[in-house]
Amino acid sequence: MSFSVTEPSKGTKWLAGVLVIGYACITLVPLLWIIATGFKSPTDSIAYPPIVVFEPTLEGYVNLFTERTRATPDMLEAAGEPQTWYDEIVRERGTVISGPSRYGERFLNSVIIGFGSTFLCMVLGTMAAYAFSRFKVPLKDDLLFFILSTRMMPPIAVAIPIFLMFRNLGLNDTHLGMILLYTAVNLSLSVWLLKGFIDEIPIEYEEAALIDGYTRFQAFYKVVLPQAATGIASTAIFCLIFAWNEYAFAVLLTSGTAQTAPPFIPTIIGTSGKDWPAVAAGATIFLVPVMVFTILLRKHLLRGITFGAVRK
Amino acid sequence: MTLSPLETAAAKTPAPLAKRIRGLSDRTIAWIFVAPTIFLLLAVNIFPLIWTIRLSFTNFRVNRPNNDVEWVGLRNYERILSDPDVWSTMQATAHFLIWTITLQVLIGFALAFLINKKFKGNDMWTTIIVFPMMLSPAVVGNFWTFLYQPQIGLFNYVIAFFTGADPASFSMIGDVHLAPWAIVIADTWMWTPFVMLICLAGLRSIPDSIYEAAECDRASKWRQFWTITIPMALPFLMLAVLFRGIENFKMFDLVVQLTGGGPGNTTTLTSIDLKREAFEKWRTGYSSAYAVILFVTVFGLASIYVKALNKVKER
Questions:
Q1: Quick one: what percent of chain B has pLDDT higher than 70?
Q2: Are B136 and B177 within one domain?
Q3: Interchain CB contacts (distance < 8 Å): A and B
Q4: How far is CA A53 from CA A180, B144, B276, in A?
């Protein structure tokens, strides 16, 4: 290797590495604590001093997905031997499973609304971004700025009229309402990001396709879309993460049928006081997919979080 | 005038054939492509905004739809701006904004600076550090209440371990003096990686040749840092501050789950206050005026700031 004055010395690199890894480890502690608490028994979860080594149990997960009722010893005996491993876990606490909890439903709502809004947002966003990137749209800069500015409003501020509007249209607490709302919120991000990605595709490809007799539409979906696939995929993941994490609109506009997981998880309570292992289990199941997505997205992370302003 | 290959080809094509090949005109396609987006944004953003502005001049209450709606002119605005409680929430928001941004910029920049030393495995560690900011703020806020529990909370235990205080003697979210810091700490934990990523992009955009030239001129490392690194990374730093500023001005989910605005009103940020007025006290007209004031504030401050940012970029 040739000598370079700008290359940091070995000692500097080592020191920088130690400091950064130290920070990363500290910052990971709360996350690891959530995951670990999910596998603790209720007693272990509130032990003092906090314990790191414990006997893992799936009780938190069982409690998360079930509703339980306290049963007298006679009732337990009458119910016979526990049939499944999760029956066994709840029997030990002197309770029987009375039915599934709402968590499954709420999680499914998150999936439906997340994917639904992401899909709609990508369809509309790609079309608008393509038009902004390739055609002379009147007032282009103003429209683009208008699209961006919709993101500056505090969600609570727009929630008041949206609440009224949805109530009149019968969209309150419906999947369709939430999908439309999240699509609108995410459109600014997707149009800005996708415009950046499409700008980078050389216009010559389309010109060649047009000369070969393709129509604009054909050129768009046979030439531009495949070229923009990576950009569309990463934009989609960003939209999905936003819809997945959103709380303010969800808590104000949904209560029963269309409620997503974020407003639900904090309301999980056990039979005696807060059931922290169940909360942690719910949080873990909810957070881990996002961590996986983050790893997939790492190359486009910066672009996504800055609306394409920083491209690296 | 030079024509692109496309235009040359188009000019040579006989008119009827050209029409068949191109189908709809570009202008029509542009409108078909842009219209749905604009329509949805108008319906979900602009229409509600106009409605909010209209409501802000009335005494409308959602929970009493049968009452007569009266025009009250600017009375809602007067009442908000002269309400000491509103000003105290503004103060809480300012405290939250100033400290989160300061801490996140300092720690984030330091981390980016260290990562830019390109030690082995820096990519992997960067991804790990980024995790917190991708998570759901409400779920994270809820879980931080567990970490902040007196006696059993991990945070209290660690602080007690290092300071020797009794972990049951203080409550981060129950104490009037500590609660504003509890939300600052949780937010800093979550969003420092954001500032770090942007700073890292800034540092990586500085060409090596500038440092090489400085080395030839025998500029000390310290001097290089202040005369090259900081000025060249400044536009990026300012962009990070802009994003964090807007986001934290709107802050709701993390804090409402963490402290719920309490104890007392010490962590009642403007969004939380607005939610109470609009969805708990149902003072729709009043809270609409409140929302308009907030929006004008964010928009005004952001525009001024963007002007300053553009000036720095031009330098």
A1: 92
A2: yes
A3: 303
A4: 46, 21, 43
- Residue A256 has a CB neighbour count (10 Å cut-off) of 8
Instruction: State both tokens at A59.
Output: 């009780």
B90 and B143, same domain (yes or no): yes
In angstroms, rounded to a whole number, what is the distance separating the alpha carbons of residues B14 and B11?
Answer: 8
Cβ contact, residue pair A294, B194, below 8 Å: no
Shortest Cα distance from B89 to chain A (angstroms)? Answer: 15
Residue A163 tokens, joined: 């609440």
Q: Summarize pLDDT for B232-276 with one digit per residue, the tens.
A: 999 899 989 988 998 899 899 999 999 988 788 889 999 999 999
User: pLDDT under 50 in chain B at which residues?
Assistant: 1, 18, 21
> pLDDT digits over B152-175, tens only?
889 988 988 898 888 888 888 888
- Report CB contact under 8 Å: B152, A47: yes
Number of domains in chain B: 2
d(CA A189, CA B53): 25
Please name the residue that has the structure tokens 């991990």: B154
Q: Nearest chain A residue to B284 by CA: give it.
A: A160
- Helix/strand/coil percentages in chain B, nearest 5: 75, 0, 25
* B159 inside 8 A of chain A by CB: no
> Does B255 reside within a domain?
yes
Coil, strand or helix at A95? strand
| Mean pLDDT calculated for residue range A148-173 | 84
Of A16, A155, A301, the CB nearest to B114: A16
The answer on B174 and B88 residing in a single domain is: yes
What domains does chain A contain, in order, with CATH numbers? 104-267 (1.10.3720.10)
Task: Provide the chain B residues 258-287 that lie in CB contact (below 8 A) with chain A.
Answer: 270-271, 274-275, 278-279, 284, 287
User: In this predicted structure, what is the pLDDT of residue B129?
Assistant: 92
Whether residue B114 sits in one domain with residue B45: no
A162: left (phi over 0), alpha (psi -120 to 50) or beta: alpha
Contacts of A204 in chain B (CB under 8 A): 5
Q: Are A223 and A214 in contact (CB under 8 A)?
A: yes
Shared-domain flag, residues B299 and B170: yes
* Containing structural domain, residue B291: 80-314
Gap from A4 CA to chain B (nearest CA, Å): 8
pTM to 2 decimal places: 0.87
Residue B5 belongs to some domain of the structure = no
Pair (B171, B26) in one structural domain: no
Domain co-membership, B136 together with B256: yes
Instruction: Clarify whether residues B28 and B84 are in a common domain.
Output: no
DSSP letter (8 states) at residue B226? I
Inter-chain CB proximity B6 and A207 less than 8 Å: yes
